[in-house]
């Protein structure tokens, strides 16, 4: 059974930092892409950043470029999202997901990030 478990969310002031973790288990993820999505209140869920597990190649949405960094630890089978210079607009539920072939197949339960002004 595949599981993705996020942690690290919380309340932070604007300009602060948080690091989210996504611990993965239940299968080999070497051929997968790990993504972080976010869903602000009343809005759609969108992809923020992703990383190919095997190559480490990354993608970032324009809104987070230069502020967020995605990484992965092969030994721990964990993906991370380092978020710096946080803004109130970054407030959302953040989800990690794992996918292959263009579709995200597995999702975590989500973790709340709230940025106060």
Q: Key terms for this structure?
A:
single chain; 117 residues; mainly beta; seven-stranded mixed sheet; 0% helix
How would you describe what is shown here?
With 117 residues, this protein is an all-beta fold. It has no helices and eleven strands. The mean pLDDT is 96.
Largest sheet: 7 strands, mixed
Count of extended strands: 11
Rg estimate, integer Å: 13 Å
Query: DSSP strand (E) fraction?
Result: over 45%
| General form | globular
What sequence of helices (H) and strands (E) makes up the elements?
EEEEEEEEEEE
Report, as a whole number of angstroms, the end-to-end distance.
Answer: 40 Å
Mean pLDDT: 96
Which structural class do the helices and strands define? mainly beta
SSE layout and pairing:
Elements (H helix, E strand, L loop, with lengths): L2 E5 L2 E4 L4 E8 L7 E7 L6 E7 L5 E3 L7 E6 L4 E6 L8 E9 L2 E5 L3 E6 L1
Parallel strand pairs: 2-11
Antiparallel strand pairs: 1-3, 3-8, 4-5, 4-9, 5-6, 7-8, 9-10, 9-11
Short description:
This protein is mostly beta strands and 117 residues long. The protein is built from no helices and 11 strands.
């Amino acid at each position: 059974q595949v599981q993705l478990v996020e942690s690290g969310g919380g309340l932070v002031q604007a300009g602060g930092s948080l690091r989210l973790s996504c611990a993965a288990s239940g299968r080999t993820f070497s051929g997968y892409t790990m993504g972080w999505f976010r869903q602000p209140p009343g809005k759609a869920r969108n992809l923020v950043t992703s990383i190919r597990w095997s190559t480490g190649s990354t993608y970032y949405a324009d809104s987070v470029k230069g502020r967020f960094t995605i990484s992965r630890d092969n030994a721990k089978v964990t993906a991370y999202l380092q978020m710096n210079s946080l803004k109130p607009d970054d407030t959302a539920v953040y989800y990690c997901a794992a996918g292959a072939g263009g579709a995200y197949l597995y999702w975590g339960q989500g973790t709340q990030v709230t940025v106060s002004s």
